[in-house]
Amino acid sequence: MNPALLDEALRTIDFPTNSNVLVDASHADDAGIIQIDKEFALVQTTDFFTPIVDDPYIYGQIAAANALSDIYAMGAEPISALNIICFPDTVLDSEAFKLILQGGAEKAKEAGIVILGGHSVSDKELKYGLAVTGKIHPEKIKLNHNLKSGDYLILTKPIGTGILTTALKNGILNEDDISSAIKSMLTLNDKPSKLLHKYPVSACTDVTGYGILGHLWEMLEGSEVGVTISVNEIPFFDNAIPFAKKGTQIPGGTLSNERFIHKHLDMGKVDLWYQALLFDPQTSGGLLISIPSEFATDFLNDLAEYPLPVSIIGEVHDRDNQISLV
Ligand code: CO
Ligand code: CO
User: Which residues lie below 8 Å from residue 93, measured CB to CB, with a gap of 6+?
Assistant: First the structure.
């Protein structure tokens, strides 16, 4: 939803808390974390959304991969999940219902977690996702902030799923046309997440609804550092670029994402059409990782067999608290 509205509500409501809470919503982190004992903290998150592809089985898988991603972004290990489904049972048949849940179950299996149950509601508009629980050692938590000057920024998936799924919804493209984006959305962030503990990573988040620059701003907000992003180093889905240039098939969220952070953005000499990609709301996007520069190449080499492009897209400096594009 609109990031400004959410931000305002989260700042004004007095949510109950206690001294065992290690991570809450105050820094827009990917998941909440509560300490259970010295060695064990519980990680919780939920995410669900309306269909972005026509195939119910693929939709179920993407929704589950997307919900699991916030656990991986904290460097945590998922252990269990609950299904959440709002289903138009007067419009769609039971086969679609089963295929969506089957898709979610497949991704849960791949992630090595169990599904303990869930909740279903009859609703005009279909929505599906998971509430996921994970675990982590309290000292190993990876927050989305505290970037260090000199760090490099690594992105583990291409950008452009918002434009491509909008073009699909509008009948401009079909599912075959966007197969590379579907493959990316189906890919779990588990492998890059494991590497967060091999190197002294400063911060990590996953790229979802606020687009790459929106989530990057969450990493920077209120800090002493800024970042320079090389747009040429960001992997974009090839077939999303012509739409960005023409300004067509742009999802509604792009503009509110742009409004939310435009004050903190210096576009430099970068063409304005890039904004359509840089603010494009992502589904099941990659991890965005801030890592001391001397470890960045090793991190990339460890993902040499990874099925998606992993790139160094920018660096952290202490000049100003803003995002500069080159
Ligand atoms: Co997230
Ligand atoms: Co989320």
Answer: none
CA-based nearest residue to 58, from 145, 151, 190, 161: 161
* Interval 23-44: pLDDT, tens: 998 888 899 999 999 999 999 9
Ligand 1: distance of its center to the CA of 224 in Å? 22
The label of the residue with tokens 């996953």 reads: 206
Q: How far is the CA of 89 from the centre of ligand 1 (A)?
A: 30
Percent composition of the chain: helix, strand, coil (DSSP 3-state, to 5): 40, 25, 35
How many whole angstroms from 94 Cα to the centroid of ligand 1? Answer: 31
Report, as an integer, the average pLDDT of 75-84. Answer: 98
- For residue 250, give both structure tokens: 């742009």
Q: How far apart are the first and last CA of the chain?
A: 29
User: How far apart are alpha carbons 200 and 190 in whole angstroms?
Assistant: 18
Centre of ligand 2 to C-alpha 283, Å, is 10
Does residue 241 have a pLDDT over 80?
yes
Closest CA to 1 of 40, 50, 70: 50
pTM of the predicted structure, to 2 decimals: 0.95
Q: Where are the extended beta strands (E) located within the chain?
A: 21-23, 32-37, 40-49, 77-87, 114-122, 127-136, 151-155, 203-206, 226-229, 265-266, 287-292, 311-317, 323-325
Q: Cα separation of 88 and 15, whole Å?
A: 32
Q: Report residue 127 CA to chain centroid gap.
A: 18
